[in-house]
Structure formats: C-alpha cells, structure tokens
Amino acid sequence: MEKNQTDENSLIFLYDHVQVGNGFVKESPELVYEVSNSVPHLESLGFVIQKEPLEKASEFSTMGLYVIELSQIYRVCEYGIHRLISQKALNLAKSGKIRIVFWGATEGGNIIDGGLLKESERVIKSWKLPLKPFFIYGDLRVQEKAKKNELESLFFCPVDYWGPSYQHQMKEKWKEESVLKIEKPIHTLEKKKYDFLCYNANPKSHRLALIAELKRKGLDKNSLISLVGRSYAEQGFIDNLNAMAFFNSTHPEFKKISKNIEKYKKNIEYMYLDQNLDSIEEAHGDRRQQSNHYEQSFFSFVTESTLESEVLFPTEKVFKPLLNEHPFIVYGSPGLLGYLRSLGFETFPEFFDESYDEKLDQRDRLEIILESVTQFCNLPIEEKRNLLSSASEKLVHNSEHFKKIKFKDNYNIVIENLRGKI
Q: Of 103, 185, 188, 274, which has the most beta carbons under 10 Å away?
C-alpha cells in the first residue's frame, strides 16, 4: 500500500482515547481534540498539526506521534503513566511504527526526585521500544534531574508553556477589545495609590502563609490582594496551611510566622478584586486582568505556582507584569529572574534586593522578599514615584518585548526532536 505523503513541516498526532482521571476511555478522535491543549497550543505557535485516529498510523510516510495528555500530574505519575498507553498503541510502538509522547507541558512540579516515575521507568524499559517515548514537561530543569536520577527510558523535553500561551491569549483579546490600554507609568504617577498588586486564585500553602504574614506586618492595608479560593473548601485552606512545614524553624522571625499561621486559620477569608469564585472558573478567569489594577499600584507581588528549589516552572503569573508595564518581585522558585533576563526582559534591582533569586532555601528567599517589600512600602510617596519614573524605559521595553518575542524559536528543538531530525 502506498503511503500518504505528508507535509514535511507538519506533525501527525494520533489519538485513540480521552484521559479521564487516572485512566482513559475509548472515544472518537474528535472528542480528544476538543479537550486537547497540545494541539491548539502548538498551532498557536505556527506549527502544523495533522490529527488522525490511531488506526491510520501505518498510512503515512511520516511517523505518527501517539500523544497522551497528562493532568493532575502527581496523581497520574503515581498511578503510572505507562498504564495510559493502550495495547494497540503499545504494539505499534514496539514495532517502531509510532512514537509515544507524554504531554505534560502545563505542569511543572518535581515529579522525578521523589521517585514517582520509578515504576513507569521500569515497565517502559522492559518493553525495549526502538524509540524512546518523549515526555514534554513544563519544568525547565527536568532534563538535569532525569539524568541525575538515571531515568533512561524516557526522552525529556522541557518547554515554557505559559509564556507563549499567555501571549497568544492576549493577542486574541486585543482583537476583540481594548483590554490593555494602559497609560504609560510616567503619565499615571498621580494615580498610584496602592503599594502593590498581588493576585492569588489557587489557595496554595505558600500563598496562604504569605498573605497571613502580609497581614501580620500590616502590608495588606495599602495594597490590592486577591485570594479567590477557587473550588477549595475551607478545610482545603487549613490543610494547605498545615503543609507549611518549612516555617518550622528556630529562626525568630519564622517562629512569629508559625504563630501567625495558627491565628490566621481561625479567621480565613476570601479576598476579591474583580473576580469571585464563580467567575474565575469561567474561561480561565484568573488569566484576565483589569488595567486599573496596574495603573493604581506601584508594583506586582507575584506568587508563582511552586516554591520548589529543584524546578524552574514559569507561568503566566510572572509574564503579566511584563506586559502591563509593572515592576515586580517574585515569590517562587530560584532562578526565575535569571530565566526572564535570558529571554531579554529587564528586572528591578533598584526596587528590590534581587539576591533572593539565587537562594535555594525557601526561608531565605522569603525573608529577603518580605524585607524588600517592607522597605519599599515604607518609602515616602514621592520617592516611590521617582523610582517608578526612573524605570519607565525598562517598563516599556518589557511590554513591547513580550508582545514581539518569538516563543516559537524556543520550541524548534522540541519539534525537531518530535520529527526525528535530531
């Protein structure tokens, strides 16, 4: 049978299931594409994806990729990613007719050092596949951890998912409405009445503890802070607060924080700005923003998705202030500022002590961050305005650079790998 010729620049994605929880169910390819984030994401970057059912795998001149989209990453890795491969797909992979791809680009936690992939590593290794399965993941340090832990059965490809995803989302918004008509900071100095803007949707433990500490220090009084809660019940708040093990320290300052967390548990409250629990669940409401929040505040206090020192997982949260011409400080993993600089963005050492970005210990990072924020908030209003005015060129540069940066360039090596050219 003659093979169907495919565009050499396209990728053939093969599906035979929709993932549900820790397993999968057989469904039509059309339904798979509806729930997919890999296909629309890559297409938004300009890559050509040809979507076909697994049954057609042998009909093409280009090798097809059997894509399994991962969600709830810790749970699914513990369950065993090898269990998500259908027997039909496994047989084709063993014969070298297709290549398996695990797509976890939207996630970025440390799934390697804790041994979550150990069983899947053992099973996949036993299959002796002619082509290693790809594992596309949002932790930019995943390759070095895989090498250190001697995970040899999977080919890890790190990608920045949320930078290009947020850029594409904003470009689509610009077509529909004037979402981001923000006046230049140099011309809105008189509008600045809040010290900082701090968005929090998912009540993760480090965010709850941070807000408790901001309240203790009185830094919440003149700021814009949200804590929406998402679909978490009150017990979820308490469980997350109890998870703050790294606050158990002999350091005097952290003894205060531990006591304050206990106090905060008794008075947990949602904090709404423009989004509430219902609206934030609609169409990624947490990725929206109000321009007046940026116009009325001096800087963004970004609370990233993880504090883990072993990972580097930038999300849309750290790109928001770049686009919106806002100085920023980031409560997240070490190395995030360095990563942004490597992309050509400017950071703000004149505002904050940015040595926190190099500290591996979470407590050290938090201590420097809180001290920097406190110092800025205690400045006279005219000094704050002067600082912002002096940073105007940086702010405009970051915004314009974000609009123009070609994230696709960072994906080219991944795509070349998927095409089998490397």
A: 103
